[in-house]
Amino acid sequence: MKKPILLFAGFLMIFLLFSAEAEQVIWNEHTGIDEVTSYSAFGDWGQMIFPVDEGYYSGNTLGNLRLTWYSNIQPAKTVEIANYLREKADAGVQVFYRIYTDAEVAADSWKAETGLFFFRGNPGAKFAICNAGGGFAYVGAMHDSFPHALELSRMGYNAFALIYRPGSRTACEDLARAIAFIHEHADELEVDVTGYSLWGGSAGARMAAWLGSYGTASFGEKSYPRPGAVIMQYTGLSEVYGNEPPTYNCVGTNDGIASYRTMERRIAAIQANGTDAMIEVFPGLSHGFGLGTGTVADGWINNAVAFWKRNTD
């Protein structure tokens, strides 16, 4: 009887060793950012998960990531997103799409630092493009667009997070190209292009608003339909042209970068033009609260989706 027992014990030890190794490869709050960006399954797009310019973030692990101008960064969400991207990449699911051709990148190498992260929802569902802020100096996607896109995908929508070139003009050109790319590849991506929405926080919100008002033709692309709704967070944009799409805003009263009063006035002006618009102002919140998990803003994304839905159904 001793030999079978010993064999069983040996198999059990091997199983436990393999299980321990499997547990170790799952990223957690102690995982280094460099380990994520250099992960082999990500290829050359791993570097775009975090800001390309390292001067705008601090911390060297997923748990202690800090982004310039942002508050309420949730380490658990950062870990969740990193593992989501890894799971999809390991399974051979395409997560990242380049929006410029090889010839365009060869002519302008800066365009290599752009693209769309795709958080898939239901095949054939409408799509949203989420644009992170960063003062047009960097792209704070890990807090200001990836979490939004992930939540939208869980609601069934097809959500994209755009990595764009810093600078207000180039950022808008990249968003225009992203809109064009999705329309041109709608069958491959399995998305409904009617009544799509543009989302953004801070600088990303300005991008969404400008594309909503000016249209893609103003930024170097052919004319594509305007969005069914624009969803904006914490930006002090004031201009109103009279052709804005339905617009939702949210902001905190303690935002030292984007005045909630400026945002209230803009929403009132859009409403005065006969367009559906709404704003939620959250007491005590500062700039860049993202999804607002664990704050008074928790759940705002559900209100924003309901707003989008009522303007496209």
Secondary structure layout plus pairing:
Blueprint: H1 2-24, H2 33-37, E1 57-58, E2 66-67, H3 75-90, E3 96-97, H4 102-107, E4 115-119, E5 126-131, H5 141-144, H6 146-154, E6 158-163, H7 168-184, H8 186-189, E7 192-201, H9 203-214, E8 229-233, E9 247-252, H10 260-272, E10 277-282, H11 300-310
Parallel strand pairs: 5-6, 5-7, 7-8, 8-9, 9-10
Antiparallel strand pairs: 1-2, 3-4, 4-6
Throw out a few tags for this protein.
8-stranded mixed sheet, Rossmann fold, disordered N terminus, 10 strands, two-stranded antiparallel sheet, alpha/beta, globular, about 325 residues, 11 helices
Task: Describe the model.
The protein is of the alpha/beta class and 313 residues long. It has one domain (43-310): Rossmann fold. It has helices spanning 2-24, 33-37, 75-90, 102-107, 141-144, 146-154, 168-184, 186-189, 203-214, 260-272, 300-310; strands spanning 57-58, 66-67, 96-97, 115-119, 126-131, 158-163, 192-201, 229-233, 247-252, 277-282. The strands form two sheets. The protein has an eight-stranded mixed beta sheet, with helices on both faces. A two-stranded antiparallel sheet has the order 1-2. The protein is globular and about 55 Å long.
